[in-house]
Amino acid sequence: MALGLTRNKRSSDVTGTMAEIVRPFGYPPLVSSYRSLEDWIKAWIAFRILEASYAKAEYFINGRKCLGIFGTIGLDSAFTSDGEVLVALGFEEEAVWRVATREERTWVIVCAQRNRYPELSVLLPLRPEDAVDCANCRGSGFVHGQIISCKICSALGWVSGGET
User: Fold this and answer.
1) Confidence grade of residue 24 (pLDDT, cut at 50, 70, 90)
2) Among 56, 59, 89, 96, which residue's Cα sits nearest to residue 73?
3) Can you tell me the distance from the alpha carbon of 158 to that of 145, in angstroms, rounded to the nearest whole number?
4) Model pTM?
5) How far out from the chain centre does Cα 65 lie?
6) Where do the domains of the chain lie?
């Protein structure tokens, strides 16, 4: 196998040096290396899909290879290779995938960047000067003991001055 990795015959565990397992393809592309966020996110997704393929964690939605980015009870989300965010409400086989609304896209990206991909913060809206902390989550983006994302502010922790 490439990079001297071997597969344990009794399980799907991969053995090898940590560097070979964690970064077999190098590091994700940097935003500063691209002329636009759109070009960067496509390159970033392609890199992450390649990593997922290597780890045998490929994600296919309607026959398209995607990157699973965040999931919780009753909701799953993924990036398509062109940067579109898809969401599925429901459980497993009954879930129907669709393009995320603007609010859902923001929520998914906030949750994904907080939990797994901090580099996605560049895709979030900047806090406007007239924004105030969300009264529902007290500015944290979460409710109920930091477990559930706030639906009022899409987990951002703030709302525009006109939305209070």
Assistant:
1) low
2) 89
3) 18
4) 0.67
5) 15
6) 2-124, 125-164
